[in-house]
Amino acid sequence: MTATAREARAGRRLAGGCAALFLGLMVTLDGCAGTLTVVRAGLWTGGAVLVLVMLWPPRVTADERWLTVRGPLGARRVRVDALVCVQRYGLVAAVLELRDVRGHRLRLPMAVLEADPVLWQAVESGIRRSRERGTLLTGRRVAAAAAARVDARAAEILHASGLG
Q1: Please, which of 34, 113, 127, 130 could form a disulfide with 120 given CB 3.0 to 4.6 Å?
Q2: What's the farthest any 2 CA atoms get from each other in the chain?
Q3: Is the pTM of this model over 0.85?
Q4: pLDDT digits (tens, 9 = 90+) for 99-108
């Protein structure tokens, strides 16, 4: 079974909307100033494409063994059932860093995991298997705290929806 982050669709819409807004605003302002040319319109279009690429959310997938994050500049993978280290960075915009026995590293915002409990379940089961195999050297407390944070967020969502 493969879990995929569900919040990506909203992020893609936001990225597309921001790029379209940028392009529309710049072409309108340039046209009102009387300085719009084909070359300048091409430059504004290139700028809009750059905005789109910068804001495009990464695609996050997880299965029994791998957590993969595909972004505009490539993909990063980490083997979740052979983790060596789990670290957390930041307070407000927390990021979870996972490192496996092969030296692969992956940083993932906690907000992505909090928004998708199925994705978190795949990651958490990999962390559990790493702990059972004895490969997880550091980060047991970080993993436990991350699990508590995701569970608390899921409980908030259930309560707000009237299901919990």
Answers
A1: 113
A2: 68
A3: no
A4: 999 999 999 8
